[in-house]
Amino acid sequence: MVLDSKVDLLGMDRKSMEAYFTEIGEKPFRASQVMKWIHQHGVSDFDEMTNLSKALREHLKAVAQVRTPKIVAEQFSDDGTIKWLLEVDNHNSVEAVYIPEKNRGTLCISSQVGCALECTFCSTGQQGFNRNLESWEIIAQMWVANKALGCKPKEERRITNVVFMGMGEPLLNVAHVFPTARILMDDYAYGLSKRRVTISTSGIVPAIDKIKEELDVSLAISLHAPNNALRDVLVPINIKYPLEELMPSLHRFVEGGHSKKHVTVEYVMLDKVNDHVEHAHELVKLLGDLPCKINLIPFNPFPNTDYIRSSNNAIHRFKDIVSAAGLNCTIRKTRGEDIDAACGQLAGKVNDRTKRTQHRVQFDLAKQL
Length: 369
Ligand code: SAH
Ligand code: SF4
Prior knowledge:
This protein has 12 helices and 14 strands. With 369 residues, the chain is α/β, with parallel strands linked by helices. The protein folds into 2 domains: 7-65, DNA polymerase, domain 1; 70-367, Aldolase class I (TIM Barrel, Alpha-Beta Barrel), CATH 3.20.20. The chain has a 10-stranded mixed sheet. A two-stranded parallel ribbon has the order 1-2. Strands 7-8 form a two-stranded antiparallel sheet. The protein starts with 6 loop residues before the first strand and ends with a helix. It binds S-adenosyl-L-homocysteine and iron/sulfur cluster. Residues 121-123, 165, 169, 200-202, 222, 266, 268, 297, 299-300, 343-344 line the site of S-adenosyl-L-homocysteine. The site of iron/sulfur cluster has 11 residues, from helix 4.
């Protein structure tokens, strides 16, 4: 087997790229030139990077590459949402989703092939886990989407926000997610502000502290339950990092930030599971004075799930209680459902190495007996 030993430039943040150019005997400013070509102009061919000398272009061709994944499928929803299925290796594909709105365009990206955390209401979680995505495979989702939508100057960009809310748990892959977030916010790449790059987590407490130390981005927490007993079932990582550890980490995250710094709290609405009046009151008490915005997400169904979406009445009743307590609470509009692109519906193609899919099939068979 011939191993591809070329260095991948797509996933390098500025610091790494500057170090790379220094290492090959070039000036560090080459990094910003190359990043601009790759990320702002969507160029992957060194021959097109015309402000580099011919000699440097030839050298880069021999030792480096801008590798991008193959687009396996592109689906368009009636509401303007677009979903891409990207092949990251021979056995695995991940999904990225573009959601256009009136004043912004959000790209939802994946950080892992599948997810190991088994949240019971999540399609990705039910599929099993294969591996972490590398930085180039994560930023490639932005690169591909940006190119598909037509690379535009910064002021006219169609992708104004990026959320790590696709497949996988980003905070279990910080080695590759953090550099990706830096590229998203780099002025020589996509130049998004920290308010427009959001990492969503099921609650990996040590990594929440790591964000605070190393990266200035927005944070969303997938809470989904106001007490440990219920959260242990819905988001099993809660057994390892229970609410008494998670909540202080959220307070630490906002501490010392600017006056508007807050956490987005995500709460999936599951019929008769976590949508009772008592849950709403309990949630208000749990959140206390945490600067936050609460986002209620109507459950999106997928094959083989026993959960049902809460009724509109239950969702509005819940929202009214939380809002009446003075908290900022909104209901997330479901987008791209006709192409299975809504929150929690992303499946991609995961060659499950945890053998969970197998367990699940056995479980389903057992249920039918
Ligand atoms: N692993 C991270 C990010 C990916 S999931 C996390 O859990 O936060 C992105 C969001 O979609 C999370 O808030 C998740 O709880 C939510 N979600 C998962 N499955 C869902 C479903 N079936 N319906 C609605 N939201 C869902
Ligand atoms: Fe993983 Fe997030 Fe899905 Fe939970 S909700 S299984 S953490 S992707």
